[in-house]
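Amino acid chain:
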Amino acid sequence: MSVRYVSLKALQRSHSQRSETPESTLPHRLLADDSGSPSRARPIRTDPEHMARVLGATTKTNQYGEYLSLRCWCAQPPQYSPDLRALKLLLPEAPDQIADPEQWLFLDTETTGLAGGSGTYAFLVGIAWWEGGGLEIEQFFMREYSEERALL
């Protein structure tokens, strides 16, 4: 028998000999109050209007439902020119077609996971574009899972 096998068997025996009561498990200890008694979970506050006020957002409605929208304008940073080498990476055949930043649209999504498919939600979508001497930013927030379709 290898040394590794003997070590693993010894670990397995020592682990199986321990008898943990539910009260001594980590989840129970984390959820216990100061006296050691299980604490009661408090309901999560779900006041959509409170969230809108805190963010300074407005409630938008479309054919699929409601979502929050927040729009802001940021002053333009100092003038710069896009690097031609970087533009060639984006569009090798015609980098001059994308050289004007005022024609760009930025898109960012925040999701509940990286797996994709069922169970992953886009809870925040942001878009931005150059306009009026600055950067216009619009963000769309999902307050509840049921609002994802309206947000998208």
About this structure: The first helix runs from residue 3 to 17. The two ends are 60 Å apart (CA to CA).
